[in-house]
Amino acid sequence: MDTNEMYQRRDIEKLLKRDVKQLYKLIAQADPNYKGMQFAPDQAIKMGQKSLAKLKDGIYEKICIEWDYCNQARNADVMTLIVTISNLILQSVSGIPANIIAVLLFKIGLDQFCECTE
Length: 118
Prior knowledge:
Layout: H1 3-16, H2 20-30, H3 41-66, H4 69-72, H5 78-89, H6 98-108, H7 110-113
């Protein structure tokens, strides 16, 4: 494991301790479109949800179609799965840290996100 992957795994471990609402807040805070803006907590969650909604199609394409999540990775261990997803979506997340989005998608359910039928 190289140094970058070691740091990435540590970051993911910290993010896994956060709940979904906290992850949405982090997305809002990291979104370059909202740079310098201050949000009330409930508003930050909504802004994070909007940010993710804007990115959904590109992320869906990378994870669910190109990588074929439903057939490829459903039984992978959690850390390997999140690292892989983070690396897959890195170019599709418009300046928002991919680790945050990958952990959020894991927490809300990748099977549901990718519309897996089994």
